[in-house]
Structure to design on (231 residues):
């Protein structure tokens, strides 16, 4: 990636207590990536992250190494870590797996959701709709991610949730940055999904989820193709 399009990160992370620092730092950085806080090609420095989190560099370095293993970050040099710029081909690989995993989560959710779960999903969809209408970009990203992860939580398949988290670690920056213009967002399928869950219809729930993920992927692929164009 050409250095002229390098992005410097703006750190605004919550300071954390000293106990279980390694895991807590990993969780916070993971959450930032999943929610698109760091756009593709953002340069991260361990010292700046440590300063923002209020920790020493050691737990941050350990967390960054774990995220490199997760393929959520890449090591460009001994001092330079970046959020990767996915190739369209790589994103397509993630998409294929995501469609299967989130489709399965949707089916399990339709079979297991309690009335309270259904109302929680309905509320998330409504809040997301309002955030989009008000052009509250970050809120809409957070609510979208929360909606998808809530489905996996209700599905209650821990292995599935782990795979989904790994995929969103890599795809989250792309999902957020490609949809920075709220006017391109729609959550019609979220409402259809909730109605399918309310009707205990796993087939309809899976269709709504696959359509939702598939529709969003078109915007993301266009974004990645432009990002990967030589300058």
């Amino acid at each position: 990636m050409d250095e002229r399009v390098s992005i410097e990160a703006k750190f605004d992370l919550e300071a954390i207590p000293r106990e279980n620092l390694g895991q807590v730092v990993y969780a916070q950085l993971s959450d930032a990536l999943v929610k698109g806080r760091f756009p593709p090609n953002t340069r991260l420095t361990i010292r700046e992250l440590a300063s923002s989190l209020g920790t020493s560099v050691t737990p941050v370095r350990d967390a960054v190494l774990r995220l490199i293993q997760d393929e959520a970050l890449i090591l460009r040099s001994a001092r330079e870590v970046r959020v990767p710029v996915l190739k369209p081909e790589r994103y397509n690989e993630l998409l294929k797996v995501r469609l299967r995993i989130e489709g399965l989560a949707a089916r399990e959710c339709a079979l297991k959701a309690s009335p309270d779960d259904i109302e929680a999903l309905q509320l998330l969809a409504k809040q997301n709709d309002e955030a989009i209408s008000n052009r509250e970009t970050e809120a809409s990203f957070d609510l979208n991610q929360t909606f998808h992860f809530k489905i996996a939580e209700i599905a209650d398949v821990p292995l599935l949730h782990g795979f989904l988290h790994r995929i969103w670690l890599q795809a989250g920056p792309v999902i957020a940055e490609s949809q920075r213009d709220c006017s391109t967002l729609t959550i019609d399928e979220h409402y259809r999904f909730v109605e399918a869950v309310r009707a205990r219809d796993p087939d309809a729930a899976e269709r709504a989820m696959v359509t939702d993920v598939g529709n969003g992927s078109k915007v993301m692929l266009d974004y990645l193709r432009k990002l990967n164009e030589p300058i």
Observations:
- The CA atoms of residues 13 and 52 lie 6 Å apart.
- DSSP finds nine helices and four strands in the chain.
- The radius of gyration is 18 Å.
- The chain has a mean pLDDT of 88.
